[in-house]
Automatic annotation (TrEMBL), chains A, B:
InterPro entries: ArsR-like_HTH, HTH_ArsR_DNA-bd_dom, WH-like_DNA-bd_sf, WH_DNA-bd_sf. Residues 1-95 form the HTH arsR-type domain. This is Metalloregulator ArsR/SmtB family transcription factor. CDD domains: HTH_ARSR. NCBIfam families: HTH_metalloreg. Signal peptide: none annotated. PROSITE patterns: HTH_ARSR_2.
Length: 114, 114
DNA sequence: TCGACACTTAAGTCGTCGCTTGACTTTTGA
DNA sequence: TCAAAAGTCAAGCGACGACTTAAGTGTCGA
């Protein structure tokens, strides 16, 4: 795996490891929200929420734009996609390995002698 | 979401947040390995490796069995599947929301008056 | 039988993380 | 014009996490 891919995985999975950050993602899948709204949802300070948002943006799980004095946040599927891709690669690689192993075993039972 | 699902997500994403634990997973997708082999791969103590393995097993990302004095570890796809499912749910929910929003906007442009 | 091997467990260290408070900037509306 | 609203930044605190070392436990082979 390339180094920048590994770093991306690091950022994304670290971001997803926190329940409050996942709650932000779940909320944003149902539509945009402001920083204050997210803070109220989580039950933490606005300052704390901003820190979570920085992590989420660095991992491309959330985008946001500020108009006037209010910042509106929305989902960025890039992070979700890259995490999903990482997991799918591991899982399918494993399953294909099992298939190949199964094929080898089948051959062995059909042709016991070499 | 059910509570035990949330706890499972917590465990799995926390497990995946560590680069060494992901390295273990990547290694095990290519076949089983012993604790010592994984320790050598990571470049950390066997004791430290055991701690990682506990986390990975609690999140159903790895299974292991001990025969004699050697413990053999292999992938458990249950954890991978549940993490993948969580991400896919968020992403598709968001994409469907965008579709519905697009449909509404199309209707509005077709029928400007109400 | 006994020493080396493979792992396990406990305890301790050090850094990072999540959160708060408090001071600040910018924008808004009356 | 000015106070309240919305967010930003920095410092600090307590808890947790990833290591280590050190002292076990059980297993294998000679």
């Amino acid at each position: 795996m390339l180094k920048h891919e590994a770093e991306a995985a690091d950022r994304v999975f670290h971001a997803l490891a926190d329940a409050n950050r996942r709650a932000v993602i779940e909320r944003l899948t149902r539509g945009p929200a402001t920083v204050s709204e997210l803070a109220a949802l989580l039950g933490v300070t606005v300052a704390g929420t901003v820190q979570h948002l920085r992590v989420l943006q660095d991992s491309e799980l959330v985008r946001s734009e500020k108009v006037g004095r209010v910042r509106t946040c929305r989902i960025d599927t890039a992070g979700l996609r890259s995490a999903e891709a990482w997991l799918r690669r591991r899982r399918t690689e494993w399953e294909h390995r099992l298939d190949r192993l199964g094929a080898v075993l089948d051959d062995q039972t059909k042709e016991p002698g070499s």
